[in-house]
Amino acid sequence: MVSPSMRFEILHRTRYSYASPVRESFNEVRLKPVTNEHQTVESFLLKVLPPGRLKHYEDFYKNWVHHFEIPEAHSHLSIEALTRISTRPQALSLDLTPAPMSRLVEAARSERCFDYLQPSRYVDLDPATWRLALDATAGQTDIWQASVAIMRFLYGHLKYVSNSTHVHTHMSEVLEQRAGVCQDFAHVMLGMCRAVKIPALYVSGYLATECASATHAWVEVFVPGQGWCALDPTHNRAPDETYVKIAVGRDYADVTPVRGHYRGTTERQMEVEVVITPLAEA
Questions:
Q1: What percent of the chain has pLDDT above 70?
Q2: Domain with residues 101-254, CATH architecture
Q3: Which end of the chain has fewer CB atoms within 10 angstroms, the N or the C?
Q4: Cα separations in angstroms, 156 against 150, 179, 235
């Protein structure tokens, strides 16, 4: 039986307008999706205006990073990424019990999991987080089922409210107000999973079924024998072929789509536009 697949064209445009000309702008861009067993990048084109020489490298987490500089004065900056990609199903069935909790000892010893068991910039492992995770996973004896239980708990515990937080909001603030956006749902899930020793990483990407205005965020947990398995606490589901993965890290700070600095005014406006178009299968 042939697995269903999908193809998309994704336009991601970021525009900056400055109140007065700025100069010496240095930028990093994480907008090229990864190619793996669940998706294949067919083409990727990055355009920058004013034009700058683009270079690229792989960061510590194997994300594709482009960087460029614009030394001369400019009042606007446009960064446009155009991706064509095909995707395949990736979901691990939510009712499976592939690995008992006792196997978390293996994960703790694995170098590939170390960073994803620690606190990070927007994620804590405080006693309150640990107690919340214990309550959510009570009675669970399987790593995957414990992760699914945390996802389901968060879906009921937090309310999705647009513009209720910003990109620098810590998970503790989200738990206090019990509201946030997809990035916040992911950060709280990371903290709860890590608090009970389940390795969990942050995923930045797109959800093609939504009218997107920016990237989406979800989580992957490490299940011995299965590898990294994805869960989306914002939608209470396991991601499928409608999800496109761009980058991973400890939290949002590691996967920021556009990051940079410049000399000049702090008064600026930023506009982000994402247009996802389904394509016919090849």
A1: 97
A2: Roll (3.10)
A3: N
A4: 10, 11, 11
